[in-house]
Amino acid sequence: MTSAKLLIPIVLFASASPLCAWYKAKEIQIKPAKKYTIHQAFQNLVIAAYPLETEKKTLEIFDTKKLHESNYMPVLIVIENNNDFAISLNESDILLLDAEGEQESRIPFVNILLQISRKKSKNPYPDPSDLSNIKDQKMLADFERKAFGEKMIAPHDKDYGVVFYRLPVNGNLEGFRLYLPEISNVGNDEPLMFFEFELDGAER
Known about the structure:
Blueprint: H1 2-16, E1 39-42, E2 45-51, H2 55-58, H3 66-69, E3 72-81, E4 87-90, E5 95-97, E6 103-104, H4 109-116, H5 137-146, E7 150-153, E8 157-166, E9 177-180, E10 184-185, E11 190-191, E12 195-198
Antiparallel strand pairs: 1-2, 2-3, 3-8, 4-7, 4-10, 5-6, 5-9, 9-12, 10-11
């Protein structure tokens, strides 16, 4: 009888543990750039965009509903470089243009995580840039791995990354465009022509 009683809390603990919600990293299934509905081919480059303007689409890549609930829109960008030279591009130069042509800069993923996964602190003035303030370090690692950041793409190679913006009202992308004005030839540091294409009409 004694041993049976001792097993009860252990069984309860084991059955309760799966109820805990933990962030799980998801692998991105990358397609060839031309396979995305939204893409542009120019200057021996193919650039595709896959905006995640719905909760369902956001959950394809990130294991948290808080991104969509907090009105953030990740955009997956895939670049294929078919040139004989390397190219460089920084996510800070990838802009979202609204229907009126106003520029909306990307939002650093760290800023987003400090909002949606911040630890509770007794300090009334926590350091907003302290990454230890992010509660879920697995989430931090996954966002860091997937963020576009600064890319240098070798000749005849491809790469991808996610850039974050504010979600347009009701997720309506009509009239919104992605603008990439700063793509450079690494060999001679000369800029290539800019890319600009509409985001409406993406895969649902």
